[in-house]
Amino acid sequence: MPDRLNGKVAVITGASTGIGLATAKVFAAEGARIFITGRRKAALDRAVDEIGHNATSIQADSANLDDLDRLYGRVKAEVGRIDILFANAGGGGLLPLGQITEEQVDDTFGRNVKGVIFTVQKALPLMGEGGSILLTGSTAGSGGTAAFSVYSASKAAVRNLARSWALDLKGSGIRVNVISPGPVRTPGLVELAGEDAARQQDLLDHFATLIPLGRVGEAEEIAKAALFLASDDASFVNGAELFADGGAAQV
To answer: Residue 72 catalytic?
Structure first.
């Protein structure tokens, strides 16, 4: 049905491209007032133009606690509350065991774990009964992936955060869930293959062979799954992990 988020206020981190941007577009189309974050101002400006209405961008690094304070101060001043929080910002790179560096561990866990923890914790004073928290997980968090162990471990941590927070938030009326995409055609995925277009397509083709549906996902497909979890349609869904992966982690 249309307008499933009518009158809701949504904050989406890491929304200048990819899944975050696609989700912002879907949420806005369903009636939500959107605040998006990212680390690159030019990309954020383009994202706001693409969303088209009801969107505000705030340049912020989710692993920087001062940036988070500034983000939520702005949200509080403008609208006074948060109904939907999508802690989507994150990322990681490929390094096999034997080549893992301290820098990679600090960066990946800073973005995917520390950033998620404080993105959620600092938002809580603006949230109340009926609120929905959505975390971005990954199929990598529940299976092994060569040269991707640090990223995979960080996403496994995200899954457990949701389980534990569902208990911490008992009685608050706030739900917390995880959406775990499989391989999705986004800048973050294809850039793992470098800048060569042919190598990027080879990577997507390889992932397609691992997925029962025979193709990689599109960001818009993940956004539609996120809409379900964020909306009142999922009012009794809590502490769950929804795989949007074409069956990759299911067989």
So the answer is: no
**Cα(196)–Cα(69) distance, rounded to whole angstroms?**
38
Catalytic: which of 118, 148, 151, 165? 151
* Rounded CA separation 130/230 (Å): 10
Sequential DSSP letters for 173-212: T-EEEEEEE-SEESHHHHGGG-S-HHHHHHHHHHHHHTST
The DSSP symbol for 153 reads: H
Positive or negative torsion for Cα 22, 223, 111, 216: negative
Give the CB-side neighbour count of residue 187, counting CA atoms within 13 A: 10
pTM of the predicted structure, to 2 decimals: 0.96
The yes-or-no verdict on residue 188 having pLDDT over 90 is no
Name the token pair of 249.
Answer: 């982690």
Distance CA 193, CA 69 (A): 35
